[in-house]
Amino acid sequence: MKILIKNTSVLTMGEEVELMGNASITIENGIIKSVGLAPADFEADKIIDGANKLAMPGLVNSHTHIAMSLFRNYADDLPFWPWLTERIMPLEEKLIPEHVYWGSLLSIVEMIKSGVTSFADMYFFMDEVAKAVEETGIRASLSIGMSESGDQDKKIKNAKAYFDNWHGKADGRITVMAGPHAPYSCGPSFLSKVIDMASEKRMGIHIHLSESKKEIEDSYSLRGKSPIKHVNDLGLFELPTLAAHCVHLSDEDIEILAEKKVSVANNPGSNLKLGNGFARVEDMLKKGVNVALGTDGSASNNNLNMFEEINLAALVNKALKGDTTSIPATTAVEMATFNGAKALGIDKEVGTIEVGKKADIIIIDLNKPHFYPRYNLVASLAYSAQASDVETVIVDGKVLMENYELKTVDLEKVIFNAERCAKSLIK
After folding, report:
1. Which of 238, 294, 348, 423 has the greatest count of CB atoms below 10 A from its CB?
2. pLDDT in tens, 53-74
3. How many angstroms from the chain centroid is the CA of residue 139?
4. If you average pLDDT over residues 344-350, what whole number do you get?
5. Average pLDDT score, the chain
6. DSSP string for residues in 14-67
7. Separation CA 263–CA 240 (nearest Å)
8. Whole-model pTM?
């Protein structure tokens, strides 16, 4: 398939962010062949008119639990630990594979319609998530969420099998990481087993770290050190690591994250809603930590809208620092694109619009009142844009949505079955 996107504005992102006007993008066999002026001999199978639109890299949701869309609005306005242990976990014990499949499809539909082309997920019954990814055409880094309770050796064996079965599948759109849930649910012995397994398979690690004040207090009480230092001392950061949340960090913690090249998934909406605070994003970025953006699950965030996360990342940091220059628009958008791709370990393939990379591209409809006047399109993405402005989504050179119409999934069927599964859980 050869695709030509013509007469459009293009935001490239990457090391040097460039905004091009009246440009074209050519795509062949899923790869970006040209950006700017289309080759005269390029014969497209499909032409997309980009007039009054903006083409940019697809958004990367760097931390999710997508099947939790079935819990949306079920346990709102509760303190974090009662929310988690008294409402969410008891419901999770009732999950079956069918629930996870339809909940995952519901979230994937929501993400595609809002411009997300890649996501990192950690949950249960992950074969069902992988099936949903394969069917819909989106890109994902997937992890089986593991805690130390139960048969630890069986969990390690299952994680290995999942990697063997799914890593590199769906035309390379699926990658697999190890998913130890958190230091408070995985003791040192089990974490060491996970580290050994991940080292053997050359897997990255996706883990929750330093999300709440209670987690920090308990870690110091039990071990005399922070969760960050604890897992670093175990050798976890010797592997490529995606650390979700990292809200409560000391200066030493940030130094460790920078030294070990850990990527942090900042989840501003979820952290704010659950009263866990707001991460030291600017401090981490200044030290060279790669900070990406995520939504967390829909039980704590209530949506998977990455434009909201971009907006929060740009706004809240300014308030925390008392500095209007903190996290400018370009940085916030970069966190949701290139930084996210780097966090998932796929930045050599996606995250920017440049020749040779895979075509994960979204097209924003600029013909909306909130995009006028046109002073600064990058600023408009952080401070004005809405998820509903995404008109077209391309992943791996395949069109997943065009003119707001989904091409790979039956929306009505997904909504019907997700609602049915949610009601069966509550019953």
Report:
1. 294
2. 999 999 999 999 999 999 999 9
3. 10
4. 98
5. 97
6. SSS--EEEEEEEEEETTEEEEEES--TT---SEEEE-TTEEEEEPEEEEEE-GG
7. 8
8. 0.97
Tens-place pLDDT, residues 243-269: 999 999 999 999 999 999 999 999 999
Residue 15's pLDDT is what?
Answer: 78
Closest CA to 265 of 161, 379, 344, 192: 344
pLDDT number for residue 108 = 98
Structure-block tokens of residue 337: 């694109």
CB contact set of 9 (below 8 Å; sequence gap of 6+): 19, 20, 21, 22, 23, 50, 53, 54, 55, 366, 377
Tokens of 121: 């997920």
Domains identified in the chain and CATH numbers = 2-57+358-406 (2.30.40.10), 59-343 (3.20.20.140)
Query: Is residue 406 a contact partner of residue 112, using CB atoms and an 8 Å limit?
Result: yes
Distance (Å, whole) CA 271 – CA 277: 6
Tokens 């994250």 belong to 257
As a whole number of angstroms, the distance between CA 284 and CA 260 comes to: 13
The confidence band for 17, taking pLDDT boundaries of 50, 70 and 90, is confident
The H-assigned helical ranges of 61-143 are 80-82, 89-92, 97-113, 126-136
Residue with tokens 């032409």: 47
